[in-house]
Write a structure and sequence with these properties.
Rossmann fold, two-stranded antiparallel ribbon, alpha/beta, six-stranded mixed beta sheet, 25% strand, 2 domains
Length: 305
């Protein structure tokens, strides 16, 4: 019996959980020059909250150790006094916003823009997890947003990746079934992030910045006053280097029309989306949807994200 392959699971179309988990190897070694004084990449300087509660090690008691940290189980088993040591606990939280609206579900090179957005956010998330931080997710599509609470360590990142994969597949199914082709304004995602991001945290938005919404600028400025907002501007080569010719275009109502693109002789004008973000004073990192994850990791390294 022949089983038809699932077109929504094709490479470059689906957000592959295994592939995003493997991206950890690209950020396992973060050079010291990339770390801010608080130990976080991307200049996230955060305050110390005192001794943490997470055990770092158990070792033999030595003079000067706090007797309140004696590990009684190990001491009883070995007959030698042992104490617990702890990680420093710091407020290091990042919220990742994945734009999976219908306008992101297309691509002409290696992957859909939405898939490239998920890859870039996964790289950011692994960098933060590897340096001891916590990562949460807001996946924003045509339906109800998906929220994953911020957690640390590999388990927390696995939850974020699983949330992205599930939200992305739901967005693809909704588009394939013509349930929703309308793009809700992107400012809704920022409004959600403003209610979730702790003061002093970081917010990373991966989007093509299509239809940002009337309230985007004011919400972005307000969010920047309490968190570090970085936009990963995801673009496809077709947007800036489309070959001349006629192309079929499907409208929001499902009607196929033809659009003609003339050959450009003059230099391309600056991207208005980038100009808008620059005016807002936000950190912007260009993400090419056609680039491999290794190239994305290098771009993030160069930007100190």
């Amino acid at each position: 019996m022949n089983v038809e392959p699932d077109p929504l699971a094709a490479q470059g179309v689906a957000v592959d959980t295994d592939a995003l988990l493997r991206l950890r190897v690209l950020v396992n070694h973060i050079p010291e020059r990339k770390l801010a004084p608080a130990g976080m990449p991307g200049g996230m300087v955060t305050k110390r909250r005192g001794r943490g509660l997470e055990t770092n090690d158990i070792r033999v008691f030595s003079f000067g150790d706090d007797i309140r940290h004696i590990d009684h189980n190990t001491t009883a088993r070995s007959g030698v006094t042992h104490v617990r040591t702890f990680h420093d606990e710091r407020e290091r939280t990042a919220i990742l916003i994945a734009d999976f609206r219908p306008c992101m579900l297309w691509g002409t090179r290696r992957a859909l823009r939405s898939v490239a957005a998920a890859e870039a956010l996964a790289l950011i998330g692994w960098r933060i997890i590897e340096s001891g931080g916590r990562v949460g997710l807001i996946a924003f599509g045509a339906g109800a947003p998906v929220h994953v609470a911020a957690r640390g360590r590999q388990r927390g990142m696995a939850s974020v990746i699983g949330g992205m994969a599930a939200a992305h597949r739901a967005a693809l199914l909704a588009l394939a079934n013509a349930e929703s082709t309308e793009d809700p304004p992107l400012d809704g995602a920022l409004e959600i992030a403003a209610g979730l991001a702790p003061t002093g945290s970081a917010v990373f938005l991966a989007s093509g910045m299509d239809r940002p919404g009337d309230g985007f600028d004011s919400l972005a400025r307000a969010l920047c006053r309490r968190a570090a907002l970085t936009v990963l501007l995801v673009t496809d080569a077709f947007e800036s280097r489309a070959p001349a010719g006629s192309y079929p275009v499907v409208t929001a109502k499902g009607v196929v029309q033809w659009a003609s693109i003339a050959r450009k002789s003059a230099p391309a004008e600056p991207d208005p989306r980038r100009r808008r973000l620059d005016r807002l004073g936000m950190t912007t990192i260009a993400i090419d949807a056609g680039a491999e994850p290794e190239a994305m990791a290098e771009a993030l390294d160069r930007s100190d994200a």
